[in-house]
Design goal:
With 101 residues, this protein is an all-alpha fold. The protein has helices at 7-20, 25-44, 53-68, 75-82. The two termini are 22 Å apart. 22% of the residues are buried.
């Protein structure tokens, strides 16, 4: 799921998600996954010129860490529980921005 095409809008969405203090594990996973998908879309389509893949990777990691503080599970554990509940209409690319394990 792509949240937005605009990087500044994405920053506003990210801050709102942090402010919402998401507690439900499924919602935490879906939020991180959606954010990851959006960063990958932005990077793949070169919608931000001044940020590198590493910058976006770090941004994703910071966001994931913030949300994962509300659960005792890792991102991998949440992914194992909820990944099958997300339908993706594209092939996963090994060069995607990812949450570090």
């Amino acid at each position: 799921m792509i949240l937005t095409y605009n990087y500044q809008d994405l920053q506003n969405i990210k801050e709102q998600m942090k402010k919402d203090n998401i507690k439900d594990e499924k919602d935490i996973y879906f939020s991180i996954s959606s954010y990851k998908d959006t960063l990958n879309f932005i990077y793949k389509n070169k919608l931000v010129q001044d940020l590198t893949k590493e910058d976006l990777q770090e941004e994703l990691q910071d966001f994931a860490s913030t949300l994962l503080k509300n659960t005792n599970k890792t991102y991998d554990e949440l992914e194992n529980l909820y990944k099958s509940k997300i339908t993706k209409n594209y092939i996963i690319n090994s060069s995607e921005i990812k949450v570090k394990k």
